[in-house]
Design a protein that fits this description.
The complex is a heterodimer. Chain A is an alpha/beta fold. Chain A has 38 helices and 38 strands. Among the domains of chain A are: about 130 residues, Rossmann fold, CATH 3.40.50.20; about 60 residues, 2-Layer Sandwich (Dna Ligase, domain 1), CATH 3.30.1490; about 130 residues, Carbamoyl Phosphate Synthetase, Chain A, domain 4; about 110 residues, Rossmann fold; about 60 residues, ATP-grasp fold, A domain (Dna Ligase, domain 1); about 130 residues, Rossmann fold, CATH 3.40.50.1380. In chain A, about 35% of the residues lie in helices and about 20% in strands. The longest helix of chain A is centred in the middle third of the chain and has 20 residues. Chain A is globular. By secondary structure, chain B is of the alpha/beta class. In chain B, about 20% of the residues lie in helices and about 30% in strands. Chain B has 8 helices and 20 strands. In chain B, helix 6 packs across helix 7. The chains are: A alpha/beta, B alpha/beta. The interface between A and B is large, with 57 and 54 residues.
């Protein structure tokens, strides 16, 4: 590994034995688990940096993180990896076995911090003599407990928002009356502001708090600071009390919108020197007083008229903001924080970018950075797109440039939501009807509402009055609209100066084409004729003051020369872009593996990505990093400048995959499978024809553009049918229609999602099982493959399914046939590189649902479980190297189960039940000696808790009742107490299971379901819907309530069955805490 | 408008300040905020300032109470993008209007990073902001810049018992603000004023532009003051003057330190502070007589950032503890200085 980070002076001076100041020899690092809203891939970045920093010091690292799709859990990084639930029980067991000298709590988000606090409280750390490195636990408590926090800040005359900690509804009401409505309600000990919000009336407060007190012990009632500027500083302090602020950031969306939901710029743009340094001084004073060692952030509200301020909070750990700050400045925050935790001082460390200046400095930026959150709320029915004080976004992008207009438009394109920038979209989805309303009551599309308002000549003052967004940002946005207007007036003949102005203000060739009625390719050709091309600039942390050998690059039109020369012998790898539902850390993992493999094969690697929450954008994983757009235009810009030997489109998920054919058409060499063949798999017609030609069965389907034809087709195929638009990754707007009525409903939705693409209707096979093959081909022959099996029957999106490897219940004959079909398909598509095929299996009959000629989300899972790195094999295959071999992937000595990680608690109003639409935001995986063990551990790792006594069962339809009966009888034998609504209760009683009957909500009788849930006695809810023609409102209310009240919930019959069986099997022998290395040795 | 450099490089851009031509020494500053403070810092006299941060003018220009002197001192301004619209509750006018008022030319649309790299590689250069090819380069350092920016008469601030003489070689207002307390009287004197005959308890040597070797009368007066053991605190140019008076020498840095992120390490405690800086000359560590020691060292290039006498209460720093613009980490230097004075002045109180 090419590790060119900050190395300590001591190490540089060639000591034979490296000694960290604290003399730590083994450390336990807590990860953050499955990706969820409020806690995403940024902790893969911070954790892997920490591991690298510790390895340099010769410290042994034990990592505990069930997120198998992360880079940090690669075998090359930590010495020992535990894919285990991040719970007190498992962490205690790991500490007992490993006996680490020390533990790191600051690198795994709020999950790790909370786990660390409970390890401390329960006396485990003391018992096993485990030292907490970095910020002491007492300081963490000072920052987490609001009362303590306010008190500590008062000691140094630092102002906090007026705030009262309350422990029940009554005291919360009293506090609110004292402060005066509206008040802000926030829960302590929570990640991403869960359960927080503005409350206007006592009734609203009462309603909100009932839920919140279920999952948190403390709620804060605070002064409402809506409309104040929101500013953040990233602060680093060492044990010697050196303290610096690495970066400050300003939210474009002022207070009232969670910082994770805000558009953010770095550095601040509207603060004067006095304000900037007043807040900086308070940051340093506060962090010193609290005694933080390592990295933290401090958030402020700053009054836009008076300059008054309030400290909002301090996060005593690496955070999403610190990942952003690190990528925004080039300062390796996590790496430095890890070194400081070992006892080094900032002065001992060097700036990794210049390699000659000290790490004890504050980066000077000579560019501007802008981050925009990526939401995926359209995946959920009945969910409002309003944004506010709770975090709902699933990812983010970061744009770098030299003007605000440039970064804003870049970032909006990076989101990959179909927007071409701030304005001039080809798609109609960004025309906002009620734009003034969406500006005042912010939604995920507020930025486009502002564009609409500006196009309609609404004044910036009016927009400011509605949104409180600083006028400076609005002036800049208006400037973009002005440029658009001038361009439009000019029509297709664009003068050179006009084109330069458009490019400097972030307009893409596509946008200019849309405005002027020309093709993007024509605009590109015109630019080249005029010699208008972007320039490559370096990020060097010192604004050019010192020479730097940095490989961190971006493109801008505000320049007249390149900072770097073209590289030699390069391979360009396209990253995955923003994390979204269906495209997550697994593609970052695959991209990082590809970088490593190309490097090993002697290439200089280039990474292109736009997502700051990734490891692939770390300064030390590629030879060159372009932090820029994954757009055709930008890829061509880079390819024309660097002239790499080839480009990889198959490891970053669907975004690069969609570029494959367009790149080939413009003479860009793509490594691996020909883009023409990739397209044959993507194009439904071509792929269907191909399957027919090789005699492979597929569910009947038809592509339709009108509603009457859709109705006819559905009737011919026979209900139920699957309805979906073409070219989507995670099943947006995909649904199962059981009758014509629901078909019409879904069609309406699908059309509004994508008008460019027709709707596909296919036969939905009920009670079929799903299996998948992940593999690698070379010149059309199969090199390696792994067969995984879904626990849930077809009908659950593969991204939401519980996946088992090796397959447990699939017939040998089915496996053999699946392999044969796979061979036929990869031969027909002449695949060289990664692929994934999904099958429906009913008895021994197989049908192919789809084939992706790229790495799938299960590549890290199958690679780590089988011990063969599928990406490395794929890369070597692409390079024509010999990859033949006997790879054992079917008969393994252990079982691994991958479970989806949901974030329903964040998405108010979403129905927490799995469907053909993907809803999970992450995944975890655990190993076991048996299927039961792996399944149970994996479910626990995804947030399930082991039930102890009382369950509530609600089973729709006879089939569900009958099929689940054996499992329920098992539960009864284990001594569980049953609650159920009418029909389920009757059924259970009839079958000898004593059950307490509760009334449904709509029956308005007592005792009802709501009362049962609120009694807080339930350990588990099994709620299985029948596929009734009308969805039951009651069922939804129960499921929703279960989530809001943090009661474990299972909504799928097969999963419920598997869970109960596993529970029964392991009742007496709970799963052991064993490391991956131990399983691998077996 | 174009920026011509003495090495023949030309950067083209658009004028946004006064529509006049002007020569100067081209220097770059890496601060991300604080253009108002920088532009009014007399130490920039004769210099064409290049801002490495690309967006300038965002928060307009406030009233003069935020200035570091009465007027703009830079010779010209070079930025990547000038923000035509500004937004701030304290803003009174735009940067362009302010520049025009003081007849200072400014250019935008320049690749300031390319320019900065050139200055870094070649060292600071003479340059010219001009609308025409013709014109001369003029080295401002040949002129006595201190004389140009220093006041002509004495001013007095406050009426406290501790009497401080502040030699104004181009002093930033915030040094005066930092010294003015209920317990102090600050007498601000011109650079060549012989203060040694005055009654005073302590001496402060201010920042200022250009080559310290031009300040012969000031150095002479400092030497005279050194016959007594009264405390001396020098800032920036004051650091260089104290070194010269103490028997050391100074030299010109290749491209100076101008920015707000310079790490300085206190040799007594090994603590590192982030400092605000604006200087082109530095004290030569090897030239210092035995009786002096290095107080602060630059964490990046190890240059001298502060000196102190081993036995006398004479200290100085190369950076700006008064900040403005920049970080306030070293404000304690004034506090310590004043606290020492207060201890010594007990009989007077």
């Amino acid at each position: 590994m090419d590790l060119r980070g900050i190395s300590c002076r001591i190490a540089k001076e060639e000591c034979t034995v490296r000694m960290n100041p604290h003399k730590i020899s083994k450390v336990l690092l807590l990860g953050s688990g499955g990706l969820k809203i409020g806690q995403a891939g940024e902790f893969d970045y911070s954790g892997s940096q920490a591991i690298k920093a510790f390895k340099e010091e010769g410290v042994k690292i034990v990592l505990m993180n069930p997120n198998i799709a992360t880079v940090q859990t690669d075998e090359k990084l930590a010495d020992t990896v535990y894919f285990l639930p991040l719970t007190l029980e498992y962490a205690t067991a790991v500490i007992e076995r490993e006996r680490p000298d020390a533990i790191l709590l600051g690198f795994g988000g709020q999950t790790a911090l909370n786990l660390g606090l409970s390890l401390d409280e329960s006396g485990v750390l003391e018992k096993y003599n485990v030292r907490v490195l970095g910020t002491p636990v007492s300081t963490i408590r000072d920052t987490e407990d609001r009362d303590l926090f306010v008190r500590r800040l008062k000691e140094i005359d630092v102002k906090c928002a007026v705030s009262r900690a309350t422990k029940d509804v009554k005291s919360a009401l009293a506090a609110a009356h004292h402060i005066g409505f509206p008040v802000m309600v926030r829960s302590g000990f929570a990640l991403g502001g869960l359960g927080s919000g503005v409350v206007h009336t006592p009734a609203e407060l009462r309603e909100k708090l009932r839920e919140v007190f279920r999952s948190v012990p403390q709620v804060l009632v605070e002064e409402y600071l809506g409309g104040w500027k929101e500013i953040e500083y990233e602060v680093v302090r060492d044990a010697a009390d050196n303290c610096i602020t690495v970066c400050n950031m300003e939210n474009i969306d002022p207070m009232g919108i969670h910082t994770g939901e805000s558009i953010v710029v770095a550095p601040s743009q509207t603060l004067s020197n006095t304000e900037y340094h007043m807040l900086r001084e308070i940051a340093i004073r506060t962090i010193r007083h609290l005694g933080i060692v390592g990295e933290c952030n401090i958030q402020y509200a700053l009054h836009p008229e008076t300059g008054d301020y309030r400290v909002i909070e301090v996060n005593a750990r690496l955070s999403r903001s610190s990942a952003l700050a690190s990528k925004a400045t080039g300062y390796p925050l996590a790496f430095v924080a890890a070194k400081l935790a070992l006892g080094y001082s900032l002065i001992d460390l060097k700036n990794s970018i210049t390699k000659r200046t000290t790490a004890c400095f504050e980066p000077a930026l000579d560019y501007i950075v802008l981050k925009i959150p990526r939401w995926d709320l359209s995946k959920f029915e009945n969910v409002t797109t309003r944004i506010g004080t709770e975090m709902k976004s699933v990812g983010e992008v970061m744009a770098i440039g030299r003007s605000f207009e440039e970064v804003l438009q870049k970032a909006l394109r990076m989101l990959s939501i179909g927007a071409d920038g701030f304005t001039a979209h080809a798609s109609l989805n960004f025309r906002i009807q009620k734009y003034l309303q969406e500006i005042e009551e912010p939604t995920t599309h507020r930025i486009f509402a502002i564009a609409e308002a500006l196009r309609k000549d609404v004044s910036v003052e009016k927009i400011h009055a509605l949104s409180k967004i600083d006028l400076w940002f609005l002036y800049k946005m208006k400037h973009i609209i002005e440029i658009e207007r001038t361009l439009r007036k000019r029509g297709s003949r664009i003068p050179k100066a006009m084109l330069v102005a458009a490019k400097k203000n972030g307009f893409s060739d596509v946008q200019i084409g849309t405005i002027t009625g020309r093709k993007a390719d024509d605009i590109r050709a015109m630019r080249k004729k005029y010699r208008i091309t972007p320039f490559v600039k370096q990020i060097d942390t010192l604004a050019g003051e010192f020479p730097a050998e940095t490989n961190y690059l971006y493109l801008t039109y505000h320049a007249s020369e390149h900072d770097v020369k073209r590289g030699e012998n390069q391979a360009l790898i396209l990253g995955g872009g923003p994390y979204a539902i269906g495209s997550s850390v697994e593609f970052d993992w695959s991209s990082v593996q590809a970088l490593q493999s190309f490097k090993r094969e002697g290439f200089n690697t280039i990474m292109l990505n736009s997502n700051p929450e990734t490891v692939s954008t770390d300064y030390d994983v590629s030879d060159r990093l372009y932090f820029d757009e994954l757009s055709l235009e930008r890829v061509l810009d880079i390819v024309e400048f660097e002239k790499p030997k080839g480009t990889v489109v198959s490891t970053g998920g669907q975004i690069p995959n969609n570029l494959a054919l367009k790149l080939q058409q413009r003479d860009v060499h793509v490594f691996g499978t020909s883009p023409h063949d990739i397209d044959r798999a993507e194009d439904r017609h071509a792929f269907s024809k191909l399957l027919d030609s090789i005699g492979v069965d597929q569910p009947g389907w038809a592509e339709l553009t009108t509603i009457p034809s859709a109705k006819r087709t559905a009737k011919t195929l026979g209900y139920p049918v699957l309805v979906r638009p073409s070219y989507v990754l995670s099943g947006a707007a995909m649904s199962v229609a059981y009758d014509e009525k629901s078909l019409l409903k879904f069609l309406k939705r699908a059309a509004s999602v994508s008008s460019d693409h027709p709707v596909v209707i296919s036969k939905f096979i009920e009670n079929a099982r799903e299996i998948e093959i992940d593999g690698v081909g070379k010149n059309g022959s199969l090199v390696i493959h792994a067969i995984t099996e879904h626990v849930e029957n077809a009908g659950t999106h593969s991204g939401d399914a519980t996946v088992v490897l090796p397959a447990q219940r699939t017939y040998i004959e089915t496996i053999r046939r699946a392999k044969q079909i796979t061979k036929k398909i990869i031969k027909a598509l002449n695949i060289t590189g990664p692929f994934n095929i999904q099958f429906l299996a009913k008895e021994n009959h197989l049908q192919v649902i789809e084939c992706n000629v790229r790495a799938s989300r299960s590549f890290p899972f199958v690679s780590k479980v089988t011990g063969h790195n599928f990406i490395d094999i794929a890369v070597r295959g692409m390079l024509g190297l010999d990859v033949a071999g006997h790879y054992k992937t079917l008969e393994l000595d252990t079982v691994a189960v991958k479970s989806p990680q949901f974030s329903y608690s964040r998405i108010k109003g979403a129905d927490p039940t799995t469907s053909v639409e993907m809803a999970s935001t992450g995944e975890v995986a655990c190993f076991g000696d048996s299927y039961a063990e792996a399944l149970l551990t994996s479910m626990l790792a995804a947030g399930m808790r082991l039930p102890k006594k009382e369950v509530f069962v609600s089973l729709g339809g006879d089939e569900n009742k009958i099929k689940l009966l054996p499992a329920l009888e098992m539960l009864k034998k284990m001594g569980f107490l049953f609650h159920a609504t009418e029909h389920t209760a009757d059924f259970l009683v009839d079958h000898g299971i004593q059950t307490r009957k509760v009334f449904k909500l709509h029956e308005k009788k007592h005792p009802n379901v709501a009362e049962l849930l609120e009694s807080r006695n339930l350990d588990l809810i099994i709620n299985i819907q029948s596929r009734a023609l009308t969805q039951s409102e009651d069922g939804f209310a129960v499921r929703r309530k279960a989530i809001d009240m943090n009661i474990p919930l299972i909504t799928n019959r097969q999963l419920a069955e598997a869970f109960v069986m596993a529970l029964a099997e392991l009742r007496d022998t709970p799963p052991a805490a064993r490391s991956w290395q131990e399983y691998a040795k077996d | 408008m174009k920026l011509y450099l003495e090495d023949g490089t030309v950067f083209e851009g658009t004028s946004f300040g006064a529509r006049i031509d002007c020569p100067g020494e081209v220097v770059f500053s890496t601060g991300m905020t604080g253009y108002v403070e920088s532009l009014t810092d007399p130490s920039f006299a004769g210099q064409i300032l290049v801002c490495t941060y690309p967006l300038i003018g965002n928060y307009g220009v406030p009233d003069s109470s935020h200035f570091e002197s009465e007027r703009i001192h830079i010779a010209g301004l070079v930025v990547s993008e000038y923000s035509r619209e500004y937004s701030h509750h304290e803003a009174k006018q735009s940067l362009a209007a302010w520049l025009k008022f003081w007849k200072i030319p400014a250019i935008e649309g320049v690749d300031t990073r390319a320019l900065t790299k050139r200055l870094r590689e070649r060292g600071v250069m003479l340059g010219r902001l001009s609308h025409s090819k013709k014109g001369e380069f003029l080295d401002p350092n040949r002129e006595n810049l201190v004389e140009r920016v220093s006041p002509k008469k004495v001013s007095i601030y406050g009426s406290g018992p501790i009497r401080i003489v502040a030699v104004d070689c181009g002093m930033k207002e915030n040094i005066v603000r930092s010294l003015t307390r209920p317990e102090t009287t600050v007498t601000r004197v011109p650079w060549d004023y012989d203060f040694t005959e005055e009654k005073y308890d302590a001496l402060v040597l201010s920042n200022g532009p250009g080559n310290p070797e031009m300040c012969t009368p000031t150095v002479k007066h400092i030497r005279k003051a050194m016959r007594e053991s009264k405390p001396i605190l020098g800032v920036c140019l004051g650091n260089q003057l104290l070194a010269l008076a103490g028997g050391g020498s100074t030299y010109k840095l290749k491209y100076g330190h101008r920015g707000q992120n310079q790490p300085c390490i206190d040799s007594r405690t090994n603590r590192c502070y982030i400092t605000s800086q604006n200087h082109g000359f530095a004290v030569d560590a090897k030239s210092l007589p035995e009786s002096w020691e290095i107080w602060f060292t630059n964490g990046n290039d190890s240059s001298v950032e502060g000196i102190r006498h081993k036995t006398q209460p004479w200290t100085s720093v190369q950076f700006h503890p008064e900040a403005s613009p920049g970080p306030t980490d070293t404000a304690w230097i004034f506090e310590e200085f004043l606290a020492e004075l207060q201890k010594k002045n007990v009989p007077y109180v």
